[in-house]
Design a protein that fits this description.
Arc Repressor Mutant, subunit A, about 0% strand, Rna Polymerase Sigma Factor, Chain: A, 2 domains, mainly alpha, about 70% helix
Length: about 180
Amino acid sequence: MEKQHVDLQTRLRSDDKKALEEVYLNYKEAFVSYGLRFRLDREDLIDVYQDSVIAMYQNFIQKQTQLDDSSLKTYLFSIGKHKIYDRLRERKQLVGAVEQEDDYEEIVFTETVLSEEQQQLRKYFGHLGESCQHILRLFYYRGLSIKEIVSQTHYKDENTVKSHKSRCLKKLITLIKND
């Protein structure tokens, strides 16, 4: 990791307002450019960016966050991306915007050791068809309700979504049990 990033992180952890200003100014335009792909206007993106910078800063001060394999910019953008998703979810725009693949640099944090169950889930989730992966992500990962999924997808009603989700979940469970 670059010495500059380590120094900046140290300064953030010590509640250095100049470091906060430096981060804010260094990445603002890049974040706005990155965020435009989600179909938010510039003012919304600046609001999201400001919230993201504050959240990142609080993490450094309160939790004494230390980034290992991830750059400060990547960490900030990952916070921002989740805040963008929250903003879009509020406006019920998430599905259309997220279907565009996010090609920003991969976010790498210190490696987490997954439990055996989590490893199996990851392995077999990839064996499901696209529609199953999509509906399970919307429900479990994005936290959308059945009603929200109906309004944001091609499904005709709530019962169709429930039955499709149920079939997909059963298929996933069967794949894992037959391992």
